[in-house]
Structures are given as structure tokens and as C-alpha cells.
Specification:
By secondary structure, this protein is α+β, with helices and mostly antiparallel strands. The protein folds into two domains: 82 residues, 2-Layer Sandwich (Double Stranded RNA Binding Domain); 55 residues. It is 38% helix and 20% strand. It contains four helices and four strands; from the N terminus they run E-E-E-H-E-H-H-H. The protein has a four-stranded antiparallel beta sheet with strand order 3-2-1-4, covered by helices on one side. Strand 1 and strand 2 form a beta hairpin. The longest helix has 21 residues. It is elongated and about 75 Å long. The two termini are 39 Å apart.
Length: 164
């Protein structure tokens, strides 16, 4: 469920705008227009929330607007709320894969600067999006590789392919 955090939009030097979040002290955004600063604030907050999740730290409770302390040097424009989706909690799972597939996955994850878990999560997310679109949705349940090889070796036996 989306959570909303208060943000402070203020005027900066030379016709710029800045946004800061009372609940995320190091989270700031800026732009040459109010709209640009507010759009960047959305991205900045999402990054701050993700950072807390990676550190396994809980999200702070949003501060009510009436309790926000405005510094004396702040040229306040307005308060606004920014919505963010809290990260989905992780769960440990055990799966069995061939050692060669794991080695290939580890190499690719390293190339991308990812952990094995992050890479598998990314790969599964991509497969969930691409496979139904590519016309593979009709292949459920997927048969084992050994069963598919056996079917392919039977003379006159037609096996399903990616194109149907």
C-alpha cells in the first residue's frame, strides 16, 4: 500500500527550486522549475526508500504537515505529499538448478553488478512480462527437459515449439 510523505518546496538561488523531506534528511531534489523539482522529488524519495530497504531499516512514520519545522533561511513555496510504494519484503526460497546454469547466471550478474538473488529476481520478473506476450502462455505446465527430449526422439511425434 502506498505511503505518502510530506515534502517542502522552496525557492533556491537564481530561479531554481528545491525539495526536501522532513522524514528523510539526506533526500533532496532540485530543478529549474517547480514541476521539475517535484518530479525529481518523486525519484529521490523512491531511492531513499529503496536504500532503507536494502539496509533492512523500517520506513519512518510520515510527519504531519503542521509539525514540520521550517528553517529561518527557507524561502517556502508550499508543502506537498509524495507517494511511494514500500518495497516488497523478500522471502528465502530453495530451488534446484544445474551448476552450469548457476555459473552462467553468476557471471551475468557480476557483469551487471548484481547479486545472484537480485539477478534471479530480475530474470523472473522479465520472464513474467515477456513470456505471456511472446505467446508462451499456452505451454503451462512446462514439461521436464528429459520428457521433452524423449518426446522429440519418438519418430512421427510432433512436439510443441515456441511458435506453437
Amino acid at each position: 500500500m502506498q505511503r505518502f510523505y510530506p515534502a517542502v518546496l522552496e525557492r533556491g538561488a537564481k530561479q531554481t527550486f528545491g525539495v526536501w523531506f522532513p522524514d528523510f534528511p539526506r533526500c533532496v531534489a532540485g530543478g529549474t522549475s517547480q514541476e521539475q523539482a517535484m518530479a525529481r522529488a518523486q525519484e529521490a524519495l523512491a531511492g531513499a526508500v529503496e536504500s532503507l530497504a536494502e539496509q533492512e531499516r523500517p520506513l519512518p512514520e510520515p510527519t504531519p504537515f503542521e509539525k514540520i519545522a521550517i528553517p529561518k533561511d527557507c524561502d517556502l513555496v508550499t508543502f506537498f505529499a509524495v507517494g511511494v510504494e514500500p518495497p516488497d519484503p523478500s522471502e528465502r526460497v530453495n530451488i534446484y538448478l544445474s551448476k552450469s546454469l548457476i555459473a552462467r547466471a553468476d557471471r551475468r550478474a557480476a557483469e551487471l553488478g548484481m547479486s545472484r538473488s537480485s539477478f534471479f529476481g530480475y530474470a523472473i520478473s522479465c520472464a513474467l512480462i515477456v513470456l505471456p506476450i511472446a505467446g508462451f502462455g499456452h505451454l503451462a505446465p512446462i514439461e521436464s527437459r528429459a520428457r521433452l527430449r524423449m518426446l522429440a526422439q519418438k519418430p512421427g511425434r510432433k512436439t510443441r515449439t515456441a511458435k506453437g
